[in-house]
């Protein structure tokens, strides 16, 4: 696959991931009467089950074995991918807790801040540099996020945890380029023992919350709804710049806001509207900068037999 095709596929994967994440609160709203921590642990275990089923279906067994052998030769990569698994687990747990406890605004704010974290990490670790249009886009997005931050009126701890955990997760995925299926499978294997131990302990001491009800039914799909967007994100992370992924991520919190307004009937005030204006204008400028880059990029010579 050439660079241009890989780049286009990367954008499609990133769009798919963030659209799925943006509508995810609708799914979690179907699960009631189960604690955030217990949901998280089921989510981890069922993600592993889903990946065990998916690997042979997608004919990735050989690739997974090859990646494991690569890790044996380079333990540093194994440590990075295990760390990525626990970092994204912390992100999941924080997100579920925030939704269950009614911190929807902080959740959305966190995912607005996250692209700025991704851009910072891209500059720090990958030496990515930006032209004037891109800096202008970053400026407008930053103003929008800062405006919302100060309007919250409290220290956005949940927002910062969400922003930095997912930003670091994206960075770690860039450091260990590998197939998306292998990456998510290994992350699930690394975190599953913790989840299983927790569920066993809770089951023996207090009893688990699952039973013959609709919440348990929907919980069964938590592995798939967790793994599929992560697979799309992993596929995107090795194909396009981390900074571009950061801007595409604005789709996620925007969908969360739209769900809040039209589905959950939350009020949409002037402060949120002003924030949207800054952020969307920043995204528009960034898209223009990418179009100009593509147009200026010289096309490869075509050879004919």
Automatic annotation (TrEMBL):
Main location: membrane
Record's keyword annotation contains Cell membrane: yes
Superkingdom of the source species: Bacteria
Entry GO terms, CC: plasma membrane
Cellular localisation: Cell membrane
Coiled-coil intervals: none
Topology with respect to the bilayer: Multi-pass membrane protein
UniProt keyword terms in alphabetical order: Cell membrane, Membrane, Transmembrane, Transmembrane helix, Transport
Membrane-spanning segments: 12-28, 40-57, 78-97, 109-126, 133-150, 156-172, 184-205, 217-237, 244-264, 270-289
Annotated InterPro entries: EamA_dom, EmrE-like, RarD
Stretches assigned to the EamA domain: 10-149
Pfam families reported for this sequence: EamA (PF00892)
Family: Belongs to the EamA transporter family.
Protein name, UniProt field: Chloramphenicol-sensitive protein RarD
Native source species: Staphylococcus muscae
Organism lineage: Bacteria, Bacillati, Bacillota, Bacilli, Bacillales
């Amino acid at each position: 696959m050439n660079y241009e095709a890989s780049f286009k596929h990367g954008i499609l994967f990133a769009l798919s991931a963030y659209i799925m994440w943006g509508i995810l609160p609708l799914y979690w709203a179907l699960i009631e009467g189960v604690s955030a921590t217990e949901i998280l642990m089921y989510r981890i275990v069922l993600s592993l089950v889903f990946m065990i089923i998916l690997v042979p279906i997608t004919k990735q067994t050989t690739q997974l074995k090859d990646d494991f052998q690569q890790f044996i030769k380079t333990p540093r990569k194994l440590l990075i991918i295990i760390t990525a698994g626990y970092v994204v687990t912390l992100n999941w747990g924080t997100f579920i807790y925030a939704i269950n406890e009614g911190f929807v605004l902080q959740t959305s704010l966190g995912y607005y801040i996250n692209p700025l974290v991704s851009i910072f990490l891209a500059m720090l670790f990958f030496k990515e540099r930006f032209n004037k249009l891109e800096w202008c886009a970053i400026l407008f997005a930053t103003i929008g996020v800062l405006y919302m931050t100060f309007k919250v009126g409290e220290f956005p701890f949940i927002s910062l945890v969400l922003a930095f955990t997912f930003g670091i997760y994206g960075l770690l995925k860039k450091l260990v380029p590998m197939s998306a299926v292998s990456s998510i499978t290994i992350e699930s294997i690394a975190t599953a023992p913790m989840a299983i131990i927790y569920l066993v302990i809770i089951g023996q001491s207090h009893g688990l919350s699952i039973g013959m009800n609709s919440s348990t039914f929907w919980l069964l799909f938590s592995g798939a709804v967790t793994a599929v967007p992560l697979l799309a994100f992993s596929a995107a992370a090795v194909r396009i710049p981390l900074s571009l992924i950061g801007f595409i991520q604005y789709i996620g919190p925007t969908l969360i806001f739209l769900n809040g307004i039209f589905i959950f009937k939350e009020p949409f005030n002037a402060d949120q509207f002003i924030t949207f204006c800054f952020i969307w204008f920043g995204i528009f400028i960034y898209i223009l900068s990418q179009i100009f880059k593509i147009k200026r990029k010289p096309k490869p010579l075509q050879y004919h037999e």
